[in-house]
Amino acid sequence: MSKFWSPLTASLVPYVPGEQPKDKTYIKLNTNENPYPPSPKVIDAIKAAANADLRLYPDPTCEGLIQAAAAYYGLPAQQVFAGNGSDEILAFAFAAFFDPAKKLLFPDITYSFYKVYAKLYGLQTELIPLDEQFNVQVDRFHSDNGGVIIPNPNAPTAQLLPLDEIRALLENNPNQAVVIDEAYIDFGGESAVQLISEYPNLLVVQTLSKSRSLAGLRVGFAFGSEELIEGLNRIKNSFNSYTLDRLALAGAVASFEDEAYFRETTAKVIATRERVTEQVISLGFKATESKANFVFISHPSIAAKGIFQQLRDRGVLVRYFDQPRINEYLRVSIGTDEEMDALIAALREIA
Ligand code: PMP
Question: What ipTM is given for this predicted complex?
Answer without folding.
Answer: 0.99
